[in-house]
Design a protein that fits this description.
The complex is a heterodimer of chains A (275) and B (286). By secondary structure, chain A is mostly helical. Helix content of chain A is 83%, strand content 0%. The chains are: A mainly alpha (275), B alpha/beta (286).
């Protein structure tokens, strides 16, 4: 056997090993999922109140097959429910991003403002989304703006705090250069401050998108009569449709996972390889 | 044969000098500077005390001394990042109030912005200083300085994509592009390997021969100082460091490294500085 032949065989083995690894990466979670589903099925045999996976699919196959149906009011397919919730998240989250980054930059640049506000933000940050709901409803009177407010107030803290920390962490060297060159304000902001703080801002944005999605579900559950996956769950509970609740949970999980992946992708796309 | 000329900095003579009106010789003038920082127990830590130094326009001055002797502190007062506790630092008779592009710094860690390319890093400086110039003119300045340091091929690369030596070249090109009256270099070649270091020293000297800026440079390397400087300023140890001696480097310009190293004066001066640093002001702890 020649050396070249030997090498091609080795390469083939390497290739095979790689494809095997890929298959393994995909197969392992799927097999694990089936084991867990089987355990769940087994468990549901002893608990009549909790339907097993087979029963869930039997009960909800219409919802699974027709996510786009629309019979008016809140009687809509799961796609529309999720879509309505996502829109709220998008609006609330965008406002949170704009406010969070702006205020974060300001308090990151101002030592006294940071000293004064940081403890307050740290406390407000820990207030859970559900706790904001009553006050939002009381102050805003309507479901829609109240839901948006809850998203906003939940998502804004990580963005704000991370931005402020990012601005404070700008290496002294970059600040010194800006001072020596007497960079105009705009140049300093867009060429130095913003890019330097960007990794921190992105960390904040990524944490916030997860929180915003958590918040919308919590907010909608309490707000009756709106289209949205949160209220969908609550409605199903009122009507004793446990299978529908479980299906909705799967949807929520998948969407939340997708949002996080989207942010991670954006982060990789936008953040240049630094240092 | 030239003799070793040294100026002994005696406080009384310097004081008398400071009474005179600023002359052309006093382009950059540091007078009776003391710098101290408050410490926890309410006292003060005196870094520099009684520092006097005048630098002529177009002079290349190297500061040499042990670490912690306040060289950087002194440089920071020239670049304007800090102010003397007492005494004065003036450029062309005017006290230095803060950082400005007339005293451009080449920082120890290069201080290039990693998200901008070599070109953009220099353009940022040129654009900030020559706001009235057209885009084409600014572009030309940047390109000329990139050529000067031999980095045209790497002009679209960002600092993380190039070597340490190339980064320092960008930093030097950036500093020179805005034609500072004083170029301040804080151990610019400290982090580079020996070969790159020598290359960059040669380049810096070549460029300086054209521009003839006033240069103030910190170094730990005696050979570097001897090759580059007109004057070597040796500092005593801190705390309360001051300028011990100022040596005039006797070699004519343009200098050739191999040639000056063959001269007997080279070792005379070199040994003198070494003796000064390692015997007379040896570090107690080292």
């Amino acid at each position: 056997m020649t050396l070249a032949q030997k090498q091609t065989i080795q390469n083939r083995f390497k290739l095979k090993a790689k494809t095997w690894e890929r298959i393994d990466d995909i197969l392992t979670p799927i097999v694990t999922l089936f084991i867990l589903l089987a355990l769940w099925q087994l468990f549901s045999a002893f608990n009549q109140n909790l339907p097993g996976p087979i029963k869930v699919v039997q009960d909800t196959w219409k919802l699974i097959l027709y996510p786009f149906y629309d019979r008016g009011g809140t009687d809509k397919g799961l796609f529309w429910q999720v879509w309505a919730s996502l829109q709220r998240v998008l609006i609330g989250y965008s406002i949170a991003a704009v406010v969070g980054i702006t205020v974060g930059v300001i308090i990151g640049l101002n030592k006294r403002a940071y000293k004064g506000l940081d403890p307050i933000f740290q406390i407000l940050r820990t207030v859970p989304p559900l706790a904001w709901v009553p006050i939002a409803l009381a102050a805003l009177q309507q479901n829609q703006p109240a839901a948006l407010f809850v998203i906003f107030i939940t998502a804004v803290w990580p963005i704000l705090i991370n931005t402020a920390v990012g601005v404070k962490q700008i290496p002294q060297d970059y600040i010194n250069v800006s001072q020596v060159l007497q960079l105009p304000r705009g140049e300093f902001f867009f060429k130095v401050l913003f890019p330097a703080a960007l990794p921190y801002i992105f960390t904040g944005l990524r944490i916030a998108i997860g929180l915003a999605w958590l918040a919308i579900i919590a907010a909608e559950i309490v707000m009756s009569g709106i289209v949205g996956i949160g209220f969908f769950i609550w409605n199903a509970y009122q009507n004793g449709q446990v299978s529908e609740i479980i299906l909705a949970l799967v949807y929520i999980g998948l969407v939340g996972w997708g949002l996080d992946k989207l942010m991670a992708w954006l982060q990789n796309k936008i953040l240049p390889a630094q240092r | 044969m030239q003799t070793l000329s040294t100026t002994h900095h005696d406080r009384s003579t310097s004081l008398r000098g400071s009474m005179d009106a600023p002359t052309v010789n006093e382009f950059l003038s540091i007078k009776n500077v003391k710098k101290s920082f408050p410490i926890a127990d309410g006292g003060e830590y005196v870094v520099l005390d009684g520092v006097n130094l005048t630098v002529k326009q177009g002079e290349f001055v190297c500061l040499i001394g042990h670490s912690g002797c306040g060289k950087s502190t002194l440089l920071n007062m020239v670049s304007g990042f800090s102010k003397p506790t007492t005494g004065s630092v003036t450029l062309k008779g005017k006290p230095i109030m803060g950082p400005g592009p007339d005293r451009m710094v080449v920082f120890q860690g290069y201080a290039l912005l990693p998200w901008l390319t070599a070109y953009e890093n220099i353009y940022l400086a040129v654009n900030a200083v020559y706001q009235e110039k057209s885009k084409g003119e600014k572009d030309e300045i940047v390109i000329n300085h990139l050529k000067m340091v031999g980095l045209m091929d790497a002009k679209d690369k960002t600092p993380p994509q190039i070597s340490g030596g190339m980064r320092q070249r960008v930093a030097i090109a950036r500093a020179l592009s805005i034609r500072p009256e004083v170029l301040v270099l804080d151990e610019p070649f400290g982090a580079l390997d020996a070969i790159t270091k020598e290359e960059l020293q040669e380049e810096l000297l070549k460029i300086w021969n054209h521009t003839r800026n006033t240069v103030l440079m910190i170094t730990h390397d005696i050979d570097e100082a001897l090759f580059l400087a007109d004057k070597i300023v040796m500092m005593t140890n801190g705390p309360s460091a001051e300028i011990g001696e100022v040596i005039e480097v006797p070699f004519k310009r343009p200098r050739d490294r191999a040639r000056i190293m063959e001269m007997p004066e080279y070792y005379k001066v070199r040994n003198y500085v070494l003796d000064y640093l390692y015997n007379r002001f040896a570090h107690a702890v080292d």
